[in-house]
């Protein structure tokens, strides 16, 4: 009876549900272990502050996943444009009224709640929804350069243009994700090359304007991070973080130091968010930490491809692929930074790092993927049933189409 209740409540791809459970398991253990010292110093000895916060966010995220995976995915086709406009409006509001932390204005404080919304995370998923809708709508007109520029590249440019001044790494990541989605959506490769070239020129001009006209120090921050990554200057802040992460990974070895035994958590800034992957390897090793998480994101990618291939129409296929690519690319960037293969970007590990907006956005994304999977599975199951039989969930009866 319990199994039947679980089956009826958590529908869609079972492998993805299992991956979600795995992410939450690692998240609670790693967030608690990596943040004990910070919580003790910051919150008057309350060592469980981040654990309780993450537990509540994960509980809320599970509710979001369940609710969203029951919603018909078709609503995103009709509302994608409006969602993107709202996201762009939030980005503009962030500039006007945003909270400034670490010399960057990236958060919008919700009045009366104290909740800080990172609007770039909202814009990221909103853009993916919009691109999926547009690819489905203009599938037969993608050889028209002006049409692609107007309906695809213009919204991408506006979105990343609003994010770039305060968060270059996120803007570049969103641009890269968008290019991958457009490539999968069969936008001609020569168009994408042209857009990449235009983006490079635009970035250079933008940096010059910020430096000469606005007198902003953001360009110097970007330049320093890139230079320190290649030169490995010992006194660089970004290099200090990478060095501490490398120490955590190297001392973790194959089997790790055991849960709660990390020493680098007290040395590594952002140990419960940006560099949580390093702490997981330090405590659980390559075998118990790195490999299971890498496999989980890889399986998520392949399950997304499988779901997309079963879709009968373009929109749900592009929706699933876009959201899966968004999650996996961000996970790869976080891991690359932790192991020293990429400059420090500030990207969290999806559904594992401590966070609020990022956890909620990723939960919505997984819920939307499961929504498509639920419909696809119901259709496949319906087609396989003999005439007159009822599906497991009792929702539909198979009726053969009469000529």
Q: Care to give the gist of this entry?
A:
This protein has 403 residues and is an all-alpha fold.
Description:
The radius of gyration is 22 Å and the shape is globular. Helices cover 70% and strands 3% of the residues. With 403 residues, it is an all-alpha fold. Strands 1-2-3 form a three-stranded antiparallel sheet. The longest helix has 35 residues, at 276-310. The protein contains 13 helices and three strands. It has helices spanning 2-9, 14-42, 49-70, 75-97, 119-137, 145-163, 168-184, 189-214, 218-231, 237-252, 276-310, 314-338, 357-384; strands at residues 99-101, 104-109, 116-118. A hairpin with a 6-residue loop joins strand 2 and strand 3.
Mean pLDDT score, rounded? Answer: 85
**How large is the radius of gyration?**
22 Å
Number of distinct beta strands: 3
Question: Kindly, what is the distance between the CA atoms of the first and last residues, rounded to a whole number of angstroms?
Answer: 40 Å
Helix and strand element order: HHHHEEEHHHHHHHHH
- Level of helix content? 55-70%
Low-confidence stretches at least 5 residues in length (pLDDT < 50)? 388-403
Major sheet size, sense and barrel closure: 3 strands, antiparallel
| Approximate shape | globular
Across the major sheet, the strand order is 1-2-3
Content-based structural category: mainly alpha
Strand content: under 5%
| Count of individual helical segments | 13
């Amino acid at each position: 009876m319990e199994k039947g209740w679980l089956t009826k409540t958590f529908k869609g791809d079972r492998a993805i549900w299992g991956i979600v459970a795995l992410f939450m398991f690692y998240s609670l253990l790693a967030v608690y272990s990596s943040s004990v010292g910070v919580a003790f110093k910051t919150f008057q000895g309350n060592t469980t502050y981040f654990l309780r916060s993450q537990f509540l966010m994960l509980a809320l995220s599970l509710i979001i996943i369940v609710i969203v995976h029951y919603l018909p995915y078709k609503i995103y086709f009709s509302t994608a444009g409006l969602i993107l406009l709202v996201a762009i409006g939030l980005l503009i509001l962030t500039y006007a009224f945003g909270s400034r932390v670490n010399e960057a204005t990236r958060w919008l404080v919700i009045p009366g709640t104290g909740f800080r919304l990172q609007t770039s995370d909202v814009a990221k998923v909103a853009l993916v929804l919009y691109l999926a809708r547009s690819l489905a709508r203009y599938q037969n007109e993608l050889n028209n350069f002006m049409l692609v520029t107007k309906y695809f590249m213009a919204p991408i440019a506006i979105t990343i243009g609003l994010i770039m001044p305060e968060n270059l790494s996120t803007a570049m990541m969103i641009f890269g994700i968008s290019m991958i989605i457009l490539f999968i959506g069969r936008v001609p490769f020569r168009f994408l090359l042209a857009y990449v070239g235009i983006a490079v020129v635009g970035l250079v001009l933008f940096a010059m304007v910020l430096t000469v006209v606005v007198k902003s120090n953001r360009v110097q921050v970007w330049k320093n991070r890139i230079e320190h990554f290649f030169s490995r200057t010992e006194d660089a802040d970004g290099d200090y973080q990478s060095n501490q992460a490398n120490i955590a990974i190297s001392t973790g070895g194959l089997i790790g130091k055991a849960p709660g035994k990390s020493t680098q958590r007290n040395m590594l800034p952002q140990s419960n968010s940006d560099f949580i992957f390093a702490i997981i390897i330090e405590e659980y090793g390559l075998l118990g930490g790195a490999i299971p998480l890498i496999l989980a994101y890889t399986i998520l990618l392949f399950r997304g491809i499988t779901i997309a291939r079963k879709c009968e129409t373009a929109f749900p296929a592009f929706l699933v692929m876009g959201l899966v690519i968004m999650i996996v690319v961000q996970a790869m960037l976080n891991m690359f930074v932790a192991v020293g293969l990429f400059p420090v970007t500030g990207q969290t590990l999806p559904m594992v790092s401590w966070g609020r907006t990022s956890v909620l956005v990723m939960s919505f994304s997984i819920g939307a993927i499961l929504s498509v999977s639920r419909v696809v599975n119901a259709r496949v199951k319906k087609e396989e049933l003999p005439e007159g039989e009822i599906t497991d969930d009792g929702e539909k009866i198979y009726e053969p189409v009469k000529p």
